[in-house]
Write a structure and sequence with these properties.
The chain is mainly α and about 350 residues long. The protein is about 70% helix and about 0% strand. The protein is built from 16 helices and 4 strands. The strands form 2 sheets. A two-stranded parallel ribbon has the order 1-4. The longest helix has 27 residues, at about 95-120.
């Protein structure tokens, strides 16, 4: 029996989800859940490069997500949409479909450059000190965006829905679902190739013992720089996709609470486990999405919830009860996370025989 390669399986999954969405089998709500799962997979797996494989402690991942979101959104609106600030589009809106991946990559590149600036202080710091630096970077980015009126400031920035509508006018397909699936597949492929490369072995050596790695001629500064740039660049990619799904972004969406969500997914899945990052992102997204259905049931038993009339606000209240509780339970009963530092192929060796992982 001929074996199927992982890329072929992912391509089949991609075609299946696209087809089901196009013919109405998957409604808008299910599509949005799938898209947010994909974005969380990118965020969790990318942060795992620094916090898991390299053993650092970065806490400001949402800053790079914000940079990617704003750069890609502003570029798309400036190039392909009529806007009150930017005026008439520079190019025809029909071209948005073909330039969309390039604009996403531009946002990812901007985030990677920001990651380089954060990586430089990491040459001399580790642990709590690096955490403070990345938290400071998170506040610097959000505060800077708030004070730039040209992109909406504290009010936020919108207009990205015009881009998605323009793409659908060219070919009627669920384009954002397609781009999210492709972005997720690309991110997983890139991270897997990276951690199995010479650079990946270098950051694992830094995790084990940085001094010993330097003695063994590992250029630790270069390894850290590459790790931070890839991690932040992928976060920027996730931010660009996130912005175009919602059609509106606000600096408060990329605060320290968003960075905390990324941390929870990394530690829930397991440090240094790509499979764990994927599993934890799926579990975490579905768990939080379940709050939408659990809240009305809880409301019938807890009468004080009527003081918060907006169901979204109620879900946010319980969200930040649930997330810290997950962290406490995780540290108590399974500090290594769901997968530890193992992959699915380590737990189920037959997977290696069924598929060609390359």
């Amino acid at each position: 029996m001929k074996k199927l390669s992982v890329p072929l399986l992912l391509f089949i999954l991609f075609l299946t989800l696209t087809g089901l969405s196009h013919f109405g089998v998957l409604d808008r709500y299910v599509q949005s859940v799938i898209m947010f799962i994909g974005i969380n997979i990118i965020l969790s797996a990318s942060l795992n490069i620094v916090n898991g494989y390299m053993g650092e402690f970065a806490c400001g991942h949402a800053a790079f997500m914000a940079i990617g979101a704003y750069v890609s959104s502003v570029l798309n609106v400036f190039l392909f949409a009529r806007d009150k600030v930017f005026g008439a589009p520079l190019l025809s809106p029909e071209l948005a479909l073909y330039f969309f991946p390039l604009v996403l990559l531009a946002g990812a590149a901007a985030a990677a450059l920001a990651g380089m600036l954060v990586a430089i202080p990491s040459f001399k710091t580790r642990g709590d000190y690096l955490a403070i630096i990345t938290i400071a970077a998170n506040f610097i980015v959000t505060s800077t965006i708030i004070n730039i009126n040209a992109i909406g400031g504290a009010r936020g920035f919108m207009g990205m829905k015009k881009i998605t509508f323009a793409m659908e006018d060219v070919i009627e397909l669920p384009w954002m679902l397609i781009w999210v699936i492709l972005g997720t597949i690309f991110s997983i492929w890139l991270i897997r190739r990276y951690v199995s490369s010479t650079y990946g072995k270098g950051i694992i050596a830094i995790n084990q013992d940085e001094v010993a790695a330097e003695i063994m001629s590992v250029n630790t500064n270069r390894m850290k720089l590459m790790a931070f740039m890839i991690s932040s660049g992928l976060a920027g990619l996730a931010g660009g996709l996130f912005a175009h799904i919602l059609g509106y972004i606000n600096p408060n969406s990329f605060g320290i609470l968003k960075s905390t969500e990324c941390l929870v997914m990394v530690y829930l899945g397991g440090m240094g486990s790509l499979s764990g990052s994927v599993i934890s992102a799926i579990v975490f997204t579905l768990l939080l999405e379940g709050l939408r259905f659990v809240i009305p049931w809880i409301d019938s038993g807890l009468h004080w919830l009527h003081l918060i009339p907006d169901a979204y606000q109620v879900s946010q209240v319980w969200k930040w009860v649930l997330i810290p509780l997950i962290l406490v339970l995780l540290m108590q009963f399974r500090p290594e996370g769901i997968m530890g530092n193992k992959e699915l192929s380590d737990i189920f060796p037959k997977i290696k025989k069924w598929y060609r992982f390359r």
